[in-house]
Each structure stands twice: as structure tokens, then as C-alpha cells.
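Lab notebook page, bench 4
Experiment: in silico fold of construct C2
Operator: M.H.
Input chain length: 248 residues
Purpose: comparison with the prior construct
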Amino acid sequence: MAAKRVKAALEPVQNSPAAPFLSLILPVLNEAATLTAQLAALQPLRARGAEVLVVDGGSADGTAELAQAVVDRLLASPAGRALQMNAGASVSQGQFLLFLHADTTLPPAADELIRQAAAAGAAWGRFDVRIDGRQRLLRVVERMMNWRSRLTGVATGDQAIFVRRDLFCAVGGYPELPLMEDIALSKRLRQIAPPACLRERVLTSGRRWEKHGVLRTILLMWRLRASYFLGADPQGLAVRYGYLPRPR
């Protein structure tokens, strides 16, 4: 049902000659502390024609109010990254859609880099990632993330996934999972086309690594991904990751 909703919403504008080349879709929830700086960094892309949509999942810290004046569309959605990204995609106008986490910063020429990839035949892709933080082990983590992504054709949300509108429509958008929605989308997309693995880097926050410890976070993510590939329920994985409260 979710796939049909996304497809129905995307199809009417996918061939519009007036559509912008790129729509940036940001799912947010209580991101007031960092959102102003992130949206300021996106204004040059807006000036070059990119569309910026923020999808708020019910923030209680003024996030929506901060975004309203500096985005093209501000939407409200039930909380959940996949739900929010699909909601943004359903009203977007771009030929390519880029999904950007609230704690990730794009390279300044991200729009041109995606244009170049598209001109070379790419239907979807992602950027290399750098994790913000001074711990040396983070350099190892980011290299492993980028290498693994090239090897497997699977991208994570931290790598700023971009995808041609018609392909996103064809696979039904993001599976509406509470966790691993980026892995699930990548697996669908790579069945149709390999990703463009751009070497230019996005910068993503190291806050979760610093909060829980680098080694502990690495081990947790390995366990969660392994469990997911072995068929574990994403709802239970989201609880283990801390996205959802534990059932009483």
C-alpha cells in the first residue's frame, strides 16, 4: 500500500519540463540546535534552482518555525524517517531527489556533482562520507563505510542518497520501516542499476559515536545489520538502536 501511495503521488510531475533538476528532502525531529546552520548551507543550491523541502515529524523545540522562511516547502508528517522522506518525495518537483539527514552537510557543489553523474548515466547514487570528530578511529570507520558501500552497492542515509525520480517511483519509495529503510531502498535500487559512488564527501555528525563510544557503536551497528540481513524484525532492531521506546 505504501508503495502505491508513493507511485501515485510521484507520477503526475515526473515529466514536467518546468521541474527543477534537484529536490532536497530533509526529515527532521527536534533539530533546532543545528538546523539553522544546515539550511543556511543549502541556500546557494536554492539560488541555483534546487528545491528544498523540510518534513517535520512533530518537533517540540521550534524546528519547524526555524525552517519556514528558508525552504520551499515545509511539511508535517507522522514521525519516522521513511514516512517523512516519502511524504517529502510525494510533493517534490525535482528530476532527482536527494535525501539529507539533519546532521549531514553536503559538499558545496553537490548539485553539479549529481548533474555530472546523471549525464554519465547514473540513475542513483551517494557520496562518500566523513564523520565529524577528532578520534582517529572515526577515520577508520568512515573508510570502511565508503569501501563497503562500493563493494556491496548498498548506501546508508548518512551518505546522502540521491535517485532519479522515475526510479524512486518504480521501486515504491522508501519501505516504511522504523530502521534500515536506507538499506532496504538500496537493495531495491541496485537490482535495477548500480549506484554512482561519488568520492566527494558529505560531513555527518559524530554525535552518536561520541555519545555511545566508537567501538561500542561499531559493534552495535554490525549486530543490527547482521540481524536485519538474517530476517530480524526492523521494529525490534529500532528498539535496540534507541529509535523506539522499549515496550512496557
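Observations: The first strand starts at residue 22 and ends at 28. DSSP finds eleven helices and eight strands in the chain.
Next step: discuss at group meeting.
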